[in-house]
Amino acid sequence: MTTLIACSHGTDSPEGRRTVEDLVDLVRQRMPGTRVVQAFVDVQEPTVVDVIERERRLDDVVVAPLLLSVGFHTAVDIADAVRPHENVRQGEPLGTHPLIAEVLAARLRTAIAGTWLPGDHVVLAAAGSSNPAAVADVAAAAEHLARLIPAPITIGYASAIEPRIGAAVASARRDGAARVIAASHVLAPGYFAGLVRKSGADLVSAPLGVDVRIAEVVVDRFGAA
Ligand SMILES: C[C@@]1(CC(=O)O)c2cc3[nH]c(cc4nc(cc5[nH]c(cc(n2)[C@H]1CCC(=O)O)[C@@](C)(CC(=O)O)[C@@H]5CCC(=O)O)C(CC(=O)O)=C4CCC(=O)O)c(CCC(=O)O)c3CC(=O)O
Ligand SMILES: [Co+2]
């Protein structure tokens, strides 16, 4: 049997925790016959190291990151935990999958109450990482999103990388945007989602949240690992 370890960041937000749990439940429903368990890289327990240690004795294991971009957590935390074990594999993060762009577009449509206006500008608001590979992943996510919405898109980061979200919002306005909408490129409510809300955008979309399309991406990443 194979165990899928759904490894998210971890958050102090009760709503964020519930969101991730519900998302993992959706994954579980789609994978009868696979053991699906949660693990975390930061803030919450159990750690991915501990869960791998527990699961690898009985099963093949795939760690499916519930993270959007390659970054410190995928390339160091998860990779280091996986590397010593022959029967443990690591899946790709989720954010470059076209279905994620569909969810982003749906959250944006809700934020604008269904109507795009001339002069709308979207800032794709991502966490940011000290790992430069994150930039390419967020750019790929922006390209997918660009096919689905009529507004121009620029990118802003909550931490580690310039431009920050607030700066990206301000420069869109300087360049003539009539309405700036921040697209929350985060999985769940929490600290980073809060930073996006405070970025000064006119409207802010909800985190990706609980959605069967995201569960589908997790299953896909599991299958490709
Ligand atoms: C509140 C905090 C936890 C706390 O300490 O309480 C927190 C929370 C969350 N981070 C999330 C995501 C990511 N965090 C990183 C990276 C880092 N996160 C760090 C700190 C903190 N992260 C604390 C705030 C400190 C502050 O900024 O003031 C860094 C700086 C230092 C460290 O870990 O110690 C480390 C830099 C490592 C490096 O780059 O060197 C990456 C990028 C990457 O992986 O590289 C991603 C995106 C992964 C992806 O792509 O998905 C999510 C999920 C959001 C969602 O739902 O999607 C939450 C949960 C939430 O928002 O609540
Ligand atoms: Co973090």
UniProtKB/TrEMBL annotation:
Keywords carried by this UniProt record: Lyase, Metal-binding
Record-linked Gene3D superfamilies: 3.40.50.1400
Gene Ontology MF terms: metal ion binding; sirohydrochlorin cobaltochelatase activity
EC number: 4.99.1.3
Entry-linked InterPro entries: CbiX-like, Sirohydro_Cobaltochel/CbiX
Highest taxon, organism lineage: Bacteria
Protein name, as recorded: Sirohydrochlorin cobaltochelatase
Taxonomic source organism: Microbacterium foliorum
